[in-house]
């Protein structure tokens, strides 16, 4: 082994943009929570809790969400096509329904083998099936050539930002609070995030006045603002945009010539109102005003990680482009080619997500029961957590609207702010660290997503089953306030 001094790489000479990137969802608290988990697994009994609850990340199956049977049955055949030599056993003894076998055969024909690379932008037959899904969802045609399969939405965001960002002068409008993938990626690309604040007192809605101001201010500083990111439904806020809001963002993007990046990974996690896709709104506006919106460039992203699918470990997603220049699209194709293709098993899951069993098909009943059970379970847990927050002193939390998170405001008492300062932490980090140490519940401090100056929040998922951990949060909060009030 070489000595430290002879190593070519050290902390001071590696890419500074990587060092500057921050990703709180898997930051210090998450690392510490994993240490606690390992301690508990070793049988350590000196911690004041018996379990670590990873409420820091939307990772449904880590928190006991069961995979949907139809999806996994099809995948099992894709991974082991020899099972098809014993179809009778699958049907008679393993409860595989005929549509499982049919779908697996169709997918095997579409991809050849899940162990083979596919086309760079994804298997053509799968792209076609996604286009059909989009057509059913939006009521407007979709073209498979404009669809790019990706290893989760994260990889799609990475591709798009690489294409859009040409240097430090490129600015991208980012909602605050936001999922830190965006600021972290811009940091790595050495481009400029242009933050716009969401309106907490209007259910975390998108306020066009604040977007316009952020854009104007950035332009005045010489930033070349090129794109706007919209997370709908929101992470960490859960807010779903109204159709009117979606249309006004499109109008603004047209006026300012901004690419719209619509992150729609939570499109089925909606409890209040309903999901309005940017694609449907744009096509509708184009129909109403022929020619006016033809130059709007939209990239919308979806994923198998969220919703009731929750297959984030399989890494699958796609983005659809509308209105992009052909030569730009060719460069996007080249860019995705450099990493060869998205995981093919993940691509197959995207196909299954987009085309689940339909009413009347053999697997429908069980699929529907599982899907509805997950949806209702999430809603119930979100409501229970919301009710718990309502009892907590100085905590305010908007009603659960969607996605997988609640993002309460906390009031950290001045004495705790002072303690935090001594530890070199922000008040919300101090609160979240004490919460983890006392209860084993790992949340993410609001500062990891961005928050208005002077406000403190944390983000928690409502994925974890049971109520014990919620009770332990309530107890901790009371003790924290009693200690520092
Ligand atoms: C808003 C948002 N976009 C993208 C992603 C990334 O998802 P994926 O697992 O598909 O990469 C997440 C993950 O939490 C998210 O919350």
TrEMBL record:
Taxonomic path: Eukaryota, Fungi, Dikarya, Ascomycota, Pezizomycotina
Coiled coil: none
Family to which the UniProt record says this protein belongs: Belongs to the class-I pyridoxal-phosphate-dependent aminotransferase family. Alanine aminotransferase subfamily.
Subunit description: Homodimer.
Keywords associated with the record: Aminotransferase, Pyridoxal phosphate, Transferase
GO BP of this protein: L-alanine catabolic process
Protein name: Glutamate pyruvate transaminase
Cofactor: pyridoxal 5'-phosphate
Keyword DNA-binding: no
Pfam families linked: Aminotran_1_2
UniProt KW Transferase keyword: yes
Recorded superkingdom: Eukaryota
Organism: Thyridium curvatum
UniProt-recorded Gene Ontology molecular function terms: pyridoxal phosphate binding; transaminase activity
Aminotransferase class I/classII large domain mapped to chain residues: 98-467
């Amino acid at each position: 082994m070489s000595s430290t001094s002879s190593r070519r790489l050290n902390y001071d000479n590696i890419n500074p943009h990587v060092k500057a990137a921050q990703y709180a969802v898997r930051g210090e608290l998450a690392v510490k929570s994993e240490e606690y988990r390992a301690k508990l697994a070793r049988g350590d009994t000196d911690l004041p809790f018996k379990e670590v609850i990873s409420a820091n990340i939307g990772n449904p199956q880590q928190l006991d969400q069961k995979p949907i049977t139809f999806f996994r049955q099809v995948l099992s055949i894709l991974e082991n096509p020899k099972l098809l030599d014993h179809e009778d056993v699958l049907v008679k003894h393993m409860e595989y329904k005929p549509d499982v076998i049919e779908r697996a055969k169709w997918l095997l024909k579409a991809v050849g083998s899940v162990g083979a690379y596919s086309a760079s932008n994804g298997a053509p037959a799968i792209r076609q099936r996604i286009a059909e899904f989009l057509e059913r969802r939006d009521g407007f045609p979709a073209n498979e050539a404009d669809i790019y399969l990706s290893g989760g939405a994260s990889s799609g965001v990475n591709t798009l930002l690489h294409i859009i960002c040409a240097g430090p002068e490129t600015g991208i409008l980012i909602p605050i609070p936001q999922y830190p993938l965006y600021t972290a990626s811009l940091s790595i690309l050495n481009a400029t995030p242009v933050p716009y604040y969401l309106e907490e007192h209007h259910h975390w809605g998108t306020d066009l006045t604040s977007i316009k101001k952020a854009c104007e201010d950035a332009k005045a500083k010489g930033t070349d603002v090129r794109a706007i990111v919209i997370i709908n439904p929101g992470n960490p806020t859960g807010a779903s945009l109204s159709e009117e809001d979606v249309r006004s963002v499109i109008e603004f993007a047209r006026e300012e010539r901004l690419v719209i990046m619509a992150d729609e990974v939570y499109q089925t996690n909606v409890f209040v109102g309903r999901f309005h896709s940017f694609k449907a709104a744009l096509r509708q506006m184009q129909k109403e005003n022929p020619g006016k919106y033809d130059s709007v460039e939209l990239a919308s992203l979806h994923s198998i990680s969220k919703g009731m699918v929750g297959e984030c470990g399989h890494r699958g997603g796609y983005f659809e482009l509308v209105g992009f220049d052909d030569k730009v699209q060719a460069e996007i194709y080249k860019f995705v080619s450099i990493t060869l293709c998205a995981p093919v098993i993940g691509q197959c899951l995207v196909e299954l997500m987009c085309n689940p069993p339909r009413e009347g098909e053999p697997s429908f009943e069980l699929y529907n029961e599982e899907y509805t059970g997950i949806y209702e379970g999430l809603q119930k847990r979100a409501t229970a957590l919301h009710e718990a927050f309502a009892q907590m002193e100085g905590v305010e939390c908007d009603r659960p609207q969607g996605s997988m998170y609640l993002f309460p405001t906390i009031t950290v008492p001045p004495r705790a702010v002072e303690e935090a300062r001594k530890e070199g932490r922000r008040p919300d980090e101090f609160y979240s660290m004490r919460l983890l140490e006392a209860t084993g519940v790992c949340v993410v401090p609001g500062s990891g997503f961005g928050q208005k100056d002077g406000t403190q929040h944390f983000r928690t998922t409502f994925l974890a089953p049971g109520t014990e951990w919620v009770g332990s949060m309530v107890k901790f909060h009371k003790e924290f306030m009693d200690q520092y009030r």
